[in-house]
């Protein structure tokens, strides 16, 4: 047998936060897992943009090494690549008119006990995590719209989701982003309905959730103007742990201004996988379990998981 080929892939870590907006309540993802989430992701609904379409494939439930349930699958970008020019063997630019079908994809694993996820583009041109977020929103909304259109009684309607897929801040990246900053002008923490987490890694408990519900608002922001303690800002952003979207507005020594967002400071790394393509979901899931943030489970997460995990079992592969 030949030596097993290994390939390095970029891995992103995020909080997959989905809350279903009932008339009077905010229902967690797992409450509608069997009636919305899995049926929608397996529906074959495509988001179409010109010659390009996005769809989910190979969506299934498997268990991780701790026998906890994980939602895995691929998001595929089905497109046509046009080649209008190329270089010949002599290095001369020549005209061409070729079209090739292509389907680059990214793999994902969502750990259902805490809704942390890893996202791994398979190649150059694979869908980004921002695209993944947009397609999840579209597919779930279209599925619910189609389902509700077939109902003749309002009480049978499915609720629509509020979806926020937010990168997990990494202390080293926050420090690096702020190392050449002479002043922080403003720190904004944008909040949204949470799926069992407490805001800011339990720093403020349920303060914002209580205020948001009492005022009947879905989202908002907390703004800290001209914070003087950069290390304190680093602590706040790190401890937010993907439960808010942080925006740091800064000034550099040359007086230029900048804006640091989650894209810059979220946890990303390279990991080694077997083969050139991400075809083994078990390997993806087990690699993710090596990441510290993937294993964080709040009390709210654990309680919701235990309450609703019976809704997951029917989708388990190889039961």
Explain what this protein looks like in three dimensions.
The chain is α+β, with helices and mostly antiparallel strands. Helix content is 26%, strand content 36%. The radius of gyration is 22 Å and the shape is globular.
Question: What distance lies between the first and last C-alpha atoms, to the nearest angstrom?
Answer: 32 Å
What is the chains' assembly state? single chain
Based on CA atoms alone, the radius of gyration comes out at: 22 Å
Tally of DSSP helical segments:
9
Largest sheet: 10 strands, antiparallel
Write the H/E string, N to C.
EEHEEEEEEHEHEHEHEEHEHHH
Would you tell me the structural class of the helices and strands?
alpha+beta
Helix content: 25-40%
SS elements, strand count = 14
- Percentage of β-strand residues: 35-45%
